[in-house]
Amino acid sequence: MKLVIIGVGGMGAISLSKTIAQMAINKNLSVKSSEIHGIAKKGGLVEVQMKIDEGLSGVVLQKEADIVILLEDLYFQYAKAFLNKNGILITLTKEEKESIKKEFGDIKFANSFILGRFIKKQSIFDKLDAVEVLKNIKFSEKNLKAFERGIG
Amino acid sequence: MKLFLSGNEAIAFGLLEAGVRFISGYPGTPSSEVLPAAVKLAKQFKIDGYFNWAVNEKVAFEETTAASIANIPVAFVAKQVGLNVAMDPYMNTALVGSDGGLVVVVADDPGPHSSQTEQDSRFMAYFAKIPVLEPSTPKEAYLFAKKALNLSRQYKIPVMIRTTTRVSHSKEDIEVGRLSNYTIKAQFNKNTDRYAATPHFRYLLHKQLNEKIEKIKNNEFEIKTYFSGKKLIITSGISFAYLYDIITEYKLTDKLTIAKIDMPYPLNEETLHRLTDKFEEVIIIEEGYPVIELQFRKECKGREDGTVPKEGELTIDVIKSILQKLSIMPEEKSSKLIKPPFKRPSLCPGCGHRTAFYAIKQVFKDDAIYTGDIGCYTLGLNLKAVDTVHCMGASVSFGFGFQKAFGLSNIKKPVVATIGDSTFFHSGITPLIDAVHNNSPFIVVILDNSTVAMTGNQPTPTNTYNEDGSKATPVLIENIVKAIGVDFLKICDAYDFDCMEKALLEAKDYIENYSSPAVLIFRHPCIYTTEGLKNNPRFKRVFVDEQLCKGCKICIENFECPSLIFNGSVVEIDTTTCINCGQCVVSCPFDAIKVEK
C-alpha cells in the first residue's frame, strides 16, 4: 500500500505515520516512510510518504498513492495529485473538526478519528490492529474513543 | 526487537551496538539526529560513554581521534560542509590510522535542501584514502554502522559512512540487536614514530595507508547483483532503492541488471570489469559526483557523458526520465507536477532576531553592507538586513574584508556583521581577533538566542548543560569579546528595541571615530526552548485597531512577521500563529498595532 499524509507542522502528521508504522510492524509487514518538511518550523507543510508491504524506498510519487490522508485543507489540490486512478482521499470537514475539538478538547484527537476512517478504506489492517497500538499511546482512552467515532 | 527508525537513528543504534562509546560532532542538517539518538539510547539502556557536541567539527574530529588512539571505539558526526571544517585533522588521521575504531559519519545534502554546497563526501574518502560505505536504506545504515566499526578496528583505519538527506530522514522497520554496557578501558601505547611523526616518517605512514587500502580493496569489495536484463546499471546509495522500486513497479526485471556497490571507495576495478564485460551497455547512476564512474575507467553512460544530470538531487523522477531517455522504459504522457502552495521561510513569530534585524535596518537603512552567517538568522534576508551568507563565521571575516576594501578606496561605508551565538563559538572568534589586531572598524552583532536553533535546538557553550543533560560550565560570550580586546561592547535584550537602537547609534558613532570593531550582543532565548517559552505570551492580546490602520503594509514589509496578514483593506493578526509577544507594535508608524495587558 502506498500512503501519503499531508498536514502542517504541529498537527501530528508524523505521530499518525508512526502509529500506522507500528501497526505494520505488529503484523510483521515491511514499512518505510519518507518525511518532507519545509524550513518554517511552525505552520509549514509536513508530508509523510509511506510504503507498507512493498518497495525499498519510502518515496511515493504523484499519481501513485492508494490513500492520501489530508489534515490541512490548504493543500487539497496538492493532496489530490498523489492519488492513483482508484485512490482514496481521506479528510475531515470543518464541522467534523470543530465537533472533535469540542468533544475531546484538542484538535489533535482528530488524527485518531481519521485513523478510524482509514481503517474502513483499506484491507491490510483491521480495527484490532489500530486498537492494539492506540491503547499504548498517551491519552489512550480519548484516542480510542475518537478512533471509534471515526469508524462510525 | 523491531523498531521504526530513521537512517540517522539507525546509525546511532548500530554504532552503540558495535561498541562505540565516544561520539563528538557539530549539528548540521541532515546529520543532526545521530548524536541525540545515541544520547537517548545510552540513557535508555544505561550505557556509559561520552556523547556530546563539540564547539566545531575540527575540534570534534581531533577529540574523537585522540579517544580512538586511547583504544576506545569512537565516531565523528557532521554534515558534508562540516567535514570541510575538519579537513586538517581528518586528512592526518587517515595517515596515522585509528586504534579503537573510528567511524566518520557524514550526511550529504544533494539538492541541496539546507546547505551551501551539494558536494559528495565519497570524494573526501577517496581524497584521504579511507574506505566509505554508502547505505541505500535506514536498515543498511544500521548494518553499515556496525560494519564500519568492525572494518576500522580490523584495519586500523578510519571508515566513513556516507548518507544523504533521503536516507538520513527516511524511516524503516529494522530488526535491531541488543545494547548492553561494558567497562571502558583506555590505554595508550606511546609510539612517536606514529603519533608524533616528523615529516621524515610521514611517507612511511602514507605507505602503510596505501597498503591498508590495497588490502581492503582486495578483501572487502563486493558487488551485489539483482534482476537479469542485458543492460547493466551500476549504482549505490539511495539511487539503488529508487531503481529497485522503479524496476519492480514497471516490470523491467528482464531488461535491466542492477549491480549494487556498498563500498564506492576503494573500488576493485578488476572485479567490476569481470562483471561488466558480460553486458552490452553499462550505465552508472550514483547520487552526487561520479565517484564510481571515474574509478571504473571504461566506456559507460553516466554523469561524464551527460546521461545523468551533473547537478541537483537524483530523485526518483530524475532517474525515471533517465531510463526513458535511454528507451529502457516508455515515455509517460507528460503530466505536470502539482506543487504545494508556496510559503516563504521566515523567522518564527516571536523570534528575537526579527526585532534585532528591524533595529539594525532602522538605524542603517540601505547605507550599510550587511554580512550575514549560517543559522536561522540567515532569514534576516527577508528584512533586507543580510547581503552575504558564505560559511560558518564568514560574517566577521567578510565584515573585515569589506571594511578594508572600502577603507583602501577612501569610501566611508558602514559594515554590519550578524552572527549567532553558536556560530560565533564555532568560527566567529578567530576573525574577531584579526579585526581587533588589524584595526578594522565595523560592527559585529552577536544574535544570542542561547541555542543552535535551526538544527533542532542543540545546546551551545553558553548553556549550563550539554546534549546528554550533564552539567556543563557556561562560557560567556561577553568575556571572550572583552578578552580579545574589544573596547566597545553593549548588551541588550533583543525584545528591547529602544536599547538596541541606542546601542547601534553609539556603535555607528564609534566606528566612524575609532579604528576598532564594535561588538553588540542582542540576546533573547529562542521561543522554541523552555527558557524562551517562559517569556511568552507577554501580552493578553495583540490586535490591529482598524480605525487607525491605513493598510500601508509598512509593518508587513519591514517587520515581516508571518502573523501579520493583509486582508485586502487592513492588516490583521493571525491568531493561530501569533504568540502575543507585541514586538510588531514598533513597526507601525500610525500606532495601529495595540496590545492588551
Report a brief summary of the structure.
The complex is a heterodimer of chains A (about 150) and B (about 600). With about 150 residues, chain A is an alpha/beta fold. Chain A has helices at about 15-25, 75-80, 95-105, 110-120, 125-135, 140-150, and strands spanning about 1-10, 30-35, 45-50, 65-70, 85-90.
Class of secondary structure makeup of chain B: alpha/beta
What are the low-pLDDT stretches of chain A, counting only 5+ consecutive residues below 50? none
Shape of chain A: globular
Radius of gyration of chain B: 27 Å
Summarize model confidence as the mean pLDDT of chain B: 96
Separation of the first and last Cα atoms of chain A: 23 Å
Tally of individual helices of chain B: 21
Helix content percent band of chain A: 40-55%
User: Could you describe the largest sheet of chain A, including whether it forms a barrel?
Assistant: 5 strands, mixed
Number of strands of chain B: 21
Commentary on this structure:
The complex is a heterodimer of chains A (about 150) and B (about 600). Chain A has about 150 residues and is α/β, with parallel strands linked by helices. Helix content of chain A is about 40%, strand content about 25%. Chain A contains six helices and five strands; from the N terminus they run E-H-E-E-E-H-E-H-H-H-H. Chain A has a five-stranded mixed beta sheet. In chain A, a hairpin with a 7-residue loop joins strand 2 and strand 3. In chain A, helix 1 (about 15-25) packs across helix 5 and helix 4 (about 110-120) packs across helix 6 (about 140-150). Chain A is globular and about 40 Å long. In chain B, the strands form six sheets. Chain B has a six-stranded parallel beta sheet with strand order 3-2-4-5-7-6, with helices on both faces. A five-stranded parallel beta sheet of chain B has the order 13-14-15-17-16, with helices on both faces. Chain B is about 40% helix and about 15% strand. Chain B contains 21 helices and 21 strands. With about 600 residues, chain B is of the alpha/beta class. Chain B starts with a strand and ends with a strand. In chain B, helix 1 runs parallel beside helix 7 (about 140-155). At the A-B interface, helix 1, strand 2 and helix 2 of A face strand 8 and helix 11 of B.
